[in-house]
Design brief:
Length: 514
């Protein structure tokens, strides 16, 4: 044979082999990339009735839904007739720190959460630092953030100079920073007006900032100025902001925390519905517990921590000292886990006096330990009524949140599973599809999160496989890290993060930008 022809044949056969190899590789990789979750009741997050079928995802995207046949070689997970829902979106969360410290991410994944919305109560991180954090310290869940009013105040006015109205020049500086954060993908403006860092702002300051959020077509979310004695005023403020700016406004962790107002949730909701009828896009998020978790200082609505009359009002109207537990207390760690009543007995003080002492000792500790990291004191305070909580959960315009982190209050581990177990299955306050809608599709639409919250072709593969007959929380005050049951498998962006009450160790969470 001619040497040239021989050479050409060798080259041709080599080319053919390379081509075959490339084709084979392409086929193998498409096959391996897809996963089929078969034999499930699909509750798609829109609120519509479940359908039986399968869901296929490829990479981080959902690519097929319904009555679909497996492709040869793809990964098949038999859902055994369980419910497949979109991953839950936690509308008001403080979990990021825990997710970074404990990369297994059990606090969120054990309750089916795949996206946490932070930057709440007026406190946020700059978007640039979140971008960097997600690169250097990846976490299991997706993160989205609001920009906090108190953080803007701290940056512009200085941490020690917040106990007054801001000047116009200061408000102008805050507006510039806020606008730049919104441009970088923040979901909107959050306020924590009940906390001292923002309590001394006036309504005009908040409205000026809210107008910036509205001009960027974003949203406003607020821990309102009072959840007890001056709640009517606080509601009036958020409704006014919604009316003036025409942007969606959301009440964070709605509650009635004053005893004499217990049982009046219907009146509050009627007021909100009246505002909605007038065009105000007002909504709320809610967590499923009758006790909150915060600083002892919020128990003094007038911020007069040494006034015995105010302390008396707190112990009779604002919380139940015999059912409220200290969950953090740096000056005397031995107080942690005890009720205020028990601490009062130990200290040989009345409950009101003990409350004042606890605040004063913590303030003194803070003064003497300026570098102390973490919260110095916190209380899980029983202050709500079960019927009100149920009404807020059932309100058509509420969504579910945890308001949680990992520690102290069990909401950090059990909020979503508690709604599904207690409020859906046992108490029958709402139906399963509606509850899931309030944890997924409705939440995404209220917070402006795209491509998530519903099982739809093209959406991200954030998914949770759960057993509606067994799902329930187990975390409580004494054991706030107890894992829920009934959450069988959880995927974030197409990656399995949780199975059989164990983390897989993967951390596929991304930063979600507006
Ligand atoms: Zn709050």
């Amino acid at each position: 044979m001619n040497k040239n022809i021989q050479g050409l044949l060798v080259i041709a056969s080599l080319l053919l082999q390379v081509n075959l190899y490339a084709q084979k590789k392409a086929i193998v990789s498409t096959i391996l990339k897809s996963t089929l979750i078969s034999n499930v009741q699909i509750i798609d997050g829109t609120g519509s009735i479940p359908i039986n079928g399968s869901v296929r995802f490829e990479g981080d995207k959902i690519v097929a839904i319904g009555n679909i046949k497996p492709i040869v070689g793809e990964k098949i997970i038999d859902g055994k007739g369980l419910v497949l829902a979109p991953g839950f979106i936690d509308a008001h969360s403080h979990h990021l720190g825990d997710l970074q410290k404990n990369p297994n991410g059990l606090s969120t994944s054990n309750q089916g959460i795949t996206t946490v919305v932070i930057g709440q109560d007026g406190e946020s991180y700059p978007m640039d630092s979140l971008v960097l954090d997600m690169r250097t310290k990846p976490v299991v869940a997706n993160i989205a953030s609001y920009t906090g009013h108190s953080s803007l105040r701290e940056e512009v006015m200085g941490e020690k100079n917040l106990f007054r109205n801001a000047t116009q020049a200061e408000v102008d500086k805050m507006k510039l920073i806020l606008k730049s954060e919104l441009d970088k993908g923040s979901l909107g403006l959050s306020t924590g007006l009940e906390y001292e860092q923002a309590f001394y702002s006036n309504r005009d300051e908040v409205i000026q900032l809210a107008k910036i959020a509205a001009s960027e077509k974003t949203r406003y979310i607020s821990h309102i100025r009072s959840e007890d004695v001056t709640m009517a005023d606080a509601l009036d403020e958020i409704i006014q902001i919604g009316k003036i700016t025409k942007m969606p406004v959301q009440i964070s962790h709605i509650k009635l925390a004053k005893k004499s107002d217990w049982g009046t949730a219907s009146n509050i909701l009627a007021q909100l519905e009246k505002a909605r009828a007038e065009g105000v896009q007002i909504t709320a998020d809610v967590y499923p517990y009758t006790f909150w978790n915060s600083t002892l200082r919020v128990l003094f609505p007038a911020r007069d921590y040494t006034n015995l009359a105010s302390a008396q009002l707190a112990v009779t109207q604002l919380f139940d000292p015999s059912e409220s537990y200290i969950v953090q207390y740096a000056p005397h760690p031995s107080y942690v886990g005890k009720t205020v009543s028990i601490i009062a007995k130990e200290r040989k003080e009345s409950e009101a006096q003990a409350l004042m002492s606890l605040v004063a000792i913590a303030a003194d500790f803070k003064e003497k330990n300026p570098g102390y990291k973490g919260s110095i004191e916190a209380i899980a305070a029983k202050s709500m009524n079960e019927a009100d909580v149920a009404k807020f959960i059932a309100w058509p315009y509420s969504v579910i949140c945890s308001d949680g982190n990992a520690g102290g209050h069990p909401r950090g581990y059990g909020s979503f599973t508690r709604v599904l177990g207690k409020y859906v299955r046992t108490d029958k306050v709402i139906e399963l599809t509606n509850a899931i809608h309030k944890m997924t599709g409705q939440t995404a639409s209220y917070l402006g999160i795209k491509e998530r919250g519903t099982i739809a072709i093209g959406n991200k593969a954030d998914l949770v496989l759960l057993n509606p007959n067994t799902v329930i929380d187990h975390a409580n005050i004494g054991n706030s890290h107890a894992l829920s049951t009934g959450i069988e498998m959880v995927w974030v962006n197409g990656t399995l993060i949780y199975k059989d009450q164990k983390a897989t160790g993967k951390r596929p969470g991304v930063l979600i930008k507006r």
